[in-house]
Amino acid sequence: MNIQQKLTGQLTKTTVGKRVISEQRYRMVLSAAVSLSFHFLYALYHGVLGVVHSSLWFITMCAYYAILSVMRFSVVLFEYKNKSKSSADTEYFVMRLSGILLILLSFVLSGVIYISISQNIAVKYDEITYLDILNKDLKVMDSTATSLCRDNNIPLVVFGIDDPNNIVKAAKGEKIGTIVK
User: Fold this and answer.
1) Which of these, 37, 19, 18, lies nearest to 28 by C-alpha position?
2) Widest CA span in the chain
């Protein structure tokens, strides 16, 4: 008997386990509830750090995770009210609420960018190596993609897309943004 069969056998002994195995909707709501808990705790953590250190950065991150928590909470709340019934009106409301919260989230993220620039947290590099991206934990792209580009000697140019002409300039080989080697 392998590990998966043992785990499935243990899960089917409980009511919650049976629902997790048999109902996809229940698995989705359960994952939303778990992520709700983590986002809420992370929002509290950043809020406390923001107050203790008088940091707008941490307070903005608190707002970001609070908005994510509210999005998760709406999914969990409406599932709890409807039990296993699927209601198109409820799903439409949750989608609209999520859309509104995503718009609000974009304002919060704009605040993070503004704070990064105004406090001189953001740094522009003319040239950087893949190893520097990995060592400094820069969030240009995920570490797997960075490693794959490095291992295969793929040159990379990172630039802003706020100006549509930047794509054309990059394709022509003009010096814009940051060159990653």
Assistant:
1) 19
2) 64
Q: Are strands 156-158 and 127-128 parallel, antiparallel or unpaired?
A: unpaired
pTM score, two decimals?
A: 0.47
Over residues 19-37, the pLDDT tens digits come to: 777 777 777 777 777 877 8
Overall size of the chain counted in residues: 181
Cα–Cα distance for residue pair 64/21, rounded to 1 Å: 32
Name residue 43's amino acid.
A
What gap in Å lies between CA 66 and CA 59, rounded to an integer?
10
What tokens were used for 78? 């409406």
CA–CA gap between residue 107 and residue 121 (Å, rounded): 19
| Residue 111: closest CA among 50, 56, 162, 42 | 56
**Is residue 115 within 8 Å of residue 133, measured between CB atoms?**
no
Looking at residue 129, its amino acid is T
| Cβ atoms of 76 and 25 closer than 8 Å | no
